[in-house]
């Protein structure tokens, strides 16, 4: 099945980003690979915003490492089934901005490819992950502020509980997509539900 016309693949070469797609590995909060294949997609508006953010970050000598983009509805359900925590995961019935191709999880890296200190790791489900958390180092606070500034200047909205999560404003303008509807071929027999 061809890729949905509203989605575009985000590749390291074309976007000058590093990909560390955690849900295609066991290095995520579930301990299991959720995606069958490692690929990152965004809808066209989000991809344009990412290009702007990449350019702004480059101006100050930084790049992005991407942890997740489009998340098929099946993956949204699998993550919720594993850890039904509405502070950090969208209820499947609400439709995640990720399943609309309208959200991205990422961090900043320096010219040597090292992640900037952000106070917690990706997907740490703790109040320390909140934007504005004060129980992290001054360096982590500065780095989060830089990430927030770059992303908002590029047209992204943020989610207050996750320093790594950015989304389009009014993401519900876009439909949620299953793996089949997206044509992303990300889900399959190696999904989380069968790995547990």
TrEMBL record:
Q: Can you tell me where the transmembrane regions are?
A: none
The alphabetical list of record keywords is: Cell wall biogenesis/degradation, Dipeptidase, Hydrolase, Metal-binding, Metalloprotease, Protease, Zinc
Cofactors (names): Zn(2+)
| Enzyme Commission no | 3.4.13.22
Q: Which domain of life is it from?
A: Bacteria
What role does it play? Catalyzes hydrolysis of the D-alanyl-D-alanine dipeptide.
InterPro entries per the record?
A: A_A_dipeptidase, Zn_M74/Hedgehog-like
Sites where the protein binds Zn(2+): 98, 105, 165
Q: Known Gene3D superfamilies for this protein?
A: 3.30.1380.10
Q: From the Swiss-Prot or TrEMBL record, what is one GO molecular function term?
A: D-Ala-D-Ala dipeptidase activity
So where's the catalytic machinery, residue-wise? Answer: 162 (proton donor/acceptor)
> Where is the site described as Transition state stabilizer found in this chain?
71
Q: Which reaction does it catalyse?
A: D-alanyl-D-alanine + H2O = 2 D-alanine
UniProt record similarity statement? Belongs to the peptidase M15D family.
Q: Does the keyword Zinc apply?
A: yes
Q: State the gene name recorded for this protein.
A: ddpX
Q: What class of enzyme is it?
A: hydrolase
Cofactor: binding details: Binds 1 zinc ion per subunit.
**Protein name per the record:** D-alanyl-D-alanine dipeptidase
Return the Pfam families for the record: Peptidase_M15
């Amino acid at each position: 099945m061809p890729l949905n016309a509203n989605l575009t693949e985000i590749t390291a070469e074309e976007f000058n980003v590093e990909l560390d797609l955690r849900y295609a590995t066991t290095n995520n909060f579930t301990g299991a690979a959720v995606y069958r294949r490692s690929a990152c997609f965004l809808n066209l508006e989000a991809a344009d915003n990412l290009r702007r953010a990449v350019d702004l970050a480059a101006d100050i000598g930084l790049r992005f490492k991407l942890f997740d983009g489009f998340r098929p509805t099946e993956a949204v359900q699998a993550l919720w089934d594993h850890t039904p925590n509405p502070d950090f995961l969208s209820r499947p019935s609400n439709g995640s901005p990720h399943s609309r191709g309208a959200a991205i999880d990422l961090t900043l890296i320096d010219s040597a490819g090292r992640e900037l200190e952000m106070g917690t790791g990706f997907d740490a489900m703790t109040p320390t992950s909140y934007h504005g958390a004060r129980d992290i180092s001054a360096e982590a606070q500065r780095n989060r502020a830089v990430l927030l500034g770059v992303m908002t200047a590029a047209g992204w909205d943020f989610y207050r509980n996750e320093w790594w999560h950015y989304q389009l404003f009014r993401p519900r303008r876009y439909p949620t997509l299953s793996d089949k509807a997206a044509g992303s071929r990300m889900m399959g027999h190696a999904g989380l539900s069968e790995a547990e």
